[in-house]
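Notebook, bench 3.
Goal today: get a predicted structure for ribonuclease P from Populus alba x Populus x berolinensis so we can plan the truncation constructs. The sequence was checked against the plasmid map this morning, with no discrepancies at the termini. Length recorded as 581 residues. Pasting the sequence as submitted so the record is complete.
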Amino acid sequence: MLLCTSSTFFAPSFNAKSSQYLCSYFTKKTHLLSFFKNSPICCNHSYLFSKHIKDSNFIGAHSLFMKKKATFSNSAISATSQSDEKSVGGNVVSKRLKKKVRRDAPEGVLRFKLDMCSKVGDVVEGLRLYDEARRNGVELNQHHYNVMLYLCSQNRGENGSDLKLACKRGFEIFQQMIIDKVPPNEATFTNAARLASVMEDPEMAFDLVKQMKGFGIMPKLRSYGPPLFGFCKKGMVDKAYEVDAHMIESGVVAEEPELSSLLKISADVNNADKMYELLHRLRTSVRQVTESTVGVIEDWFKSEHAAKIGKGDWDVIKVREGVVRGGGGWHGQGWLGHGQWRVVRTQMDKKGVCGSCGERLACIDIDPRETEKFAISLSKLAFGREVKADFIRFQEWLQQHGPFDAVVDGANVSLINQQTFNFSQLNNVVNRLHDMSPSKKFPLVILHKSRVNGGPAQSPCNKKLLERWKNSGALYATPAGSNDDWYWLYAAVSCKCLLVTNDEMRDHLFQLLGTSFFPRWKEKHQVRLSVSRSGIDLHMPPPYSIVIQESENGGWHVPTTTGDDLETPRQWLCATRPVKR
C-alpha cells in the first residue's frame, strides 16, 4: 500500500511496464494526476478519485501512440471516406460537400463550439460541452482534448476553488485522453505542464516535458515555460538550471523571457559565473533587450557582490585574441576589473561613441560562410512558398545581371508617406544610390508585375522610366501570385549588398528565418528612408553593431529596445569600473 501525504509528489508515468493495474488519483489539495502500479492507494486527503486501468489497455494505447502510420478518425470522417465511393446525381461527392459533412457531424459541431470557448476563454461552457459530448457518445479526437486542456490551463478563476476545480477537471480530461487511446502531441504535454504550473508544481510540469521524447515528440520553447518560470518563481535555482540544460540538450534556444528569468534568479543567489554566461547568451540570441531585462542587468551591476568579482590583472594578449576570434565586440575571458561599477543610461553618437564612457563600439564582422548558408536556406524556403520555376528563373537572371551594390524594395519605397504609388519618389532614391555606387551601377529595383504593367506605370513618363531601368538590367518584375519579399531579400543576401526598405521584416515570413543570423545581417545591410518637405534622407547602416558588447577593459554596453535610432535615439546601459593594471 502507498501512503500519500500532502508533501508527497508522484509525477505521471507513461511507461508501459508489466503490472496488473494502473491507478490514477486526484487529491483535494494538489489535484495531481498520477499512475501507480501494483498497489492500492491510501491518501490522507478527504477528496479522492480512483479508477483502475488495465495494463493491457494502456500498453495498447502506448503502442498506438508510437506507430507513425497509425490513423485516428472520428465517425464523421469515416462516414465521409465511405461516401467517396458513392455518387450524388451521377457525380462523385465534392470536396465542399465532404467538408460540410465533417462540419455538420457531432464531432465537427463540438469542435466549432469548443474553439469559440477557447477564443473567449469560457472554461465553464467548455466543460459543459465536453460533459454533454461524453454523455451523448460523441467520439473525441486529439483537437477536442487539446482545446479542453488549454481552456483548463488558462483559467484563473474568481477564487481559489474555481482554480482548483478547473485544474482537477483538466487532469481528469488528460487521464481520459489516455484511456481513450487518443495520441498526444506537443500541445497535449505543454497544456498538461501548464496545468501543473497553475497548481504551482513545476516538478510535475518538468516531468511531463521530459516524457515527451519517449513518445517521439520534441519539446518546443513554450513547453519549457511552465517548469522554468515555476522553478524561478520558487527560487529553486538548481532545478531552473536543470530545465535550462534540458532545453539546450533538446536544441531549443531560449529567448529573452527565459534568459531574463535565469538572469534574475542567478543574480539573487550571486552566481557571477552564470550571470556572465547568460549575458553572452543574451548577446547572441536577443541582441537588444526590453526594459524589464535591462532592469535585472542594472540591478546586478549595482549589487555589492558584482563589485567584488573580477580579475584585477589579466592577459591583454589573450583578451585581444578573444576579441579577434569572436569577430569583435566581446572576448569571453570572464569578468575583468575590480570594484564598484559605474552604471548609467546613455546614448551613442552616429559613430558609435558612448556618451558616458567615451568608448567606441565595435562593428562586428559577419562570417561570409554564414551569409552563403543563409542564402541557401532562404532559397529553400522560397522554393516551398513560391512557384519553383519562377524563382529559379529569377536566380538565373540575377546571376546574369548581378551583382548589384544595392537592392530596392520598389513598392515599399514608392509608398513611404504617399497615398498612391509614387514613381518619382522611387526614381529619386534610385538616382541617389546610383550616384553613391562605386561602380556607378543602377541598383536592382524589384517590383511586382502588376506595378510594372498597370496603374501609374501606364503614364508616358513612368513608362520611359521603367524602360530605362529595364534596358540597364536594373528592373525585375516578379510574376503574378508571387510574394516580392522573397525576391528582394534573396537578391540582397546573395549579392552581399545594401537593401533599401522601411519594411521592418517582422511578420511570419521573416520569422521563418530565425533569430540568430538574420537580425545581424539586417543591421549591417538595411538602408531606411525618411521623407520630409526637404527631401528624402537615406539612413545607412550604423558603423557599429547594436548588440550587447563587452570591451577589452571589462566594460559592458547593453542596447535597449527603447528608441529606433532614426527619430528617437536608442537608449543604452553603460557599466564600467576603474581598471587596475
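The first helix runs from residue 55 to 66. The chain is about 50% helix and 10% strand.
Flagging this for group meeting.
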